[in-house]
Amino acid sequence: MNGGRTGSGETVRQRVPATARLAAGSTSLSWSASTQRSQVVTPLPVISQSVPELDRSTLARREYVNREAERRAAEYTRVRELRFFVGTFNVNAKPPVFDLSPLLRDHKTPTPTQDVLWDSWAGTNGATLSNVNARAKTTIAEASTDFGDVLIFGFQEVQKLSGTAAVITDESQGRPWRDSVQALLDTNGSYVCLVQRQLVGILLLIFVRADHANAVHNIQITSAGTGIAGVGGNKGGVAARFQLYDTNICCVCCHLSAHEQNLEKRNGEYRAIMERVLFTPLGDDGANPTPLVSSYPGTYPLPQATTILDHDVVFFFGDLNYRVALRSEEVLRCIEAADWPYLASHDQLNSCRSMGFAFEPFSEAPLHFAPDL
């Protein structure tokens, strides 16, 4: 999704809930997820064939086992359907003094979409984008009647972005939002907060239903500032990765630069987040759970580090601030005629994605609502 502006206002992308099928045993712009599965792996069956004589090297043996495991996946995998909610909300430095339940109420029985897992709250200045890796094993499934299995919330401007508050994180400003979301979720089940990380005004929260908590492993959290001097946290992204059953998921909440003239700056901030958010590669035993973040441009700690796209599923969302490149009068005429395709064709984010300037690995669900002026 994309938060953009016409000549005089903001666009808001919102509301396309969906479910994901995860194998029991990681949006959003997306590759097709409808033909893939996520799996939970039980012990491998005995592979009776011997490794050919010429394939005795460690690499060859590993490739052979991987091929056999993929070929016989149905013998040792179990599919579990899980539903994700992803929401983004620029709160303009306001506390959560209002009822948050409408943010989730309309999404308890969502309509599945074909390719994309994403959602956003009505009336928010934000965007949700997701990506499904070619290796992903996720499919759209029917929704349950609760809030979902995994809920991912991105907030922007939880604190004022002026003076020292533009560069120093005040976690006391983010905690009320976490507490309010937790209280809301607890009215309809038991949820565990997996991730709470704030970078100045950017706050990422990830909750999982309690009965899935023991299936979550290898949580890593990091952030990258792209604001003041190219590193300030007034703009940038907070990222978290985790393994749910046998699926690796990465979530990135960001806040990019505003204003019509800053299109190239937004594209550059996206590229900086993609390059500088790095995670420690996991060994076979799941060790080394420490994230590696390149805090300064041009410094990358380890060439073997895990990147954002090295996951099965990626959710990329936030206040992206891309605009609709039309005059306000023309936008109003399109809104009156409900001509959403024409508006989308002049969306800066769509244009940049199609030309490969930013977000090119991602895809987004169709837009069926007006921009917010």
Automatic annotation (TrEMBL):
InterPro entries: Endo/exonu/phosph_ase_sf (IPR036691), IP5 (IPR046985), IPPc (IPR000300). Gene3D superfamilies: Endonuclease/exonuclease/phosphatase. One of its GO terms (molecular function) is phosphatidylinositol-4,5-bisphosphate 5-phosphatase activity. Pfam families: Exo_endo_phos2. Residues 80-373 form the Inositol polyphosphate-related phosphatase domain. One of its GO terms (biological process) is phosphatidylinositol dephosphorylation. This is Inositol. The gene is IP5PI_1.
